[in-house]
Design goal:
With 284 residues, the chain is α/β, with parallel strands linked by helices. The chain has 13 helices and 14 strands. A seven-stranded parallel beta sheet has the order 10-9-8-13-11-14-12, sandwiched between helices. Strands 1-6-5-7-2 form a five-stranded mixed beta sheet.
Length: 284
């Protein structure tokens, strides 16, 4: 690839990227936008079905100079590089404080059957999760806890909503994700591969401390997380092998979705890795 190409705000390529802020265009083109250095870097390194995920990069002149390594990674991935005016990149990023880099990426979700074939041991299932920021944050928590996959049911938010992508902080590109799967199919499929289904709900009869004390989280587990405001519907709770609450030891009324998900996923990660110790990515 040659040097970055200056691009006009009226370019058809800018117009095409701008349209990806709308879900119907994302679905039609099977493309989405990733904003910021971390997301663009991870997109440049990601391959889906052998094809580069990052196809195009819009960068301000300042950002291109500051993040030369990311620009070179994008170029190595075969992406077309554009230098664009600050206001163009800011419009594409849709953030209050844009960071000067916006990538156009191919959809990267996998068929649910492909996730099942990998026989996952730890899965986060988002059922009826409607807030894109929460969805992205749960995905980030799942990545940090070492989960093998994330599944968004057909009643959940669009994975490629810009807020979801930003909230994942690059984790979207790290682990397999399936989208649009009916919750009953998710449960049946995972249970068929030997995965225990646990619904996280404040009304659960068992609490997470009991699960840990009894040593039942050491096996393959899928956690189902529900809507931010009203939790899981009864019909979804009924599909689970167990409904578990995170105990509240202080006076807080509850935990938000992402915090509860992090607690549950890390509890499973620790139980599953107890014999060999928990892997850490924090520098010593």
């Amino acid at each position: 690839m040659g040097p970055a190409e200056p691009i006009s705000p009226r370019s058809p390529r800018v117009a095409a990227a701008r349209r990806l802020s709308r879900r119907n265009f994302r679905v039609k083109e099977r493309r989405f936008l990733a904003e910021g250095p971390q997301a663009v870097r991870e997109a440049a390194l990601h391959r889906g079905d052998g094809e580069p995920t990052l196809t195009e990069l819009f960068a301000t002149a300042e950002a291109a100079e500051r993040h030369t390594g990311i620009v070179e990674a994008a170029r190595a991935a075969g992406a077309r590089i554009h230098t664009a005016p600050d206001d163009v990149v800011a419009e594409l990023s849709q953030t209050v404080t844009p960071q000067g880099l916006v990538g156009v990426c191919r959809f990267l979700d996998l068929p649910f059957d492909e996730i099942l074939r990998a026989r996952p041991r730890l899965v986060a299932v988002l059922a009826n999760v409607r807030d894109p920021g929460n969805a992205g944050t749960v995905l980030r928590c799942a990545d940090a806890a070492g989960a093998d996959a994330v599944v968004l049911t057909d009643a959940s938010v669009d994975l490629y909503n810009p807020k979801s992508v930003r909230a994942s902080v690059g984790s979207l590109f790290h682990l397999p994700v399936a989208v649009g799967v009916p919750v009953d199919r998710v449960v049946d499929g995972l249970r068929g591969t030997g995965v225990r289904i646990v619904a996280a709900d404040g009304a659960g009869e068992r609490d997470l401390d009991t699960e840990l004390d009894e040593g039942v989280l050491g096996g393959p587990t899928a956690w189902i997380f529900g809507n931010e405001a009203w939790g899981l519907p009864e019909e979804t709770r009924a599909l689970a092998d167990e409904v578990v609450r995170v105990p509240i030891h202080g006076q807080a009324e509850s935990l938000n979705l992402a915090t509860a998900a992090a607690v549950c996923l890390y509890a499973s990660a620790r139980a599953q890795r107890a014999s060999g110790g928990c892997r850490s990515v924090t520098p010593s």
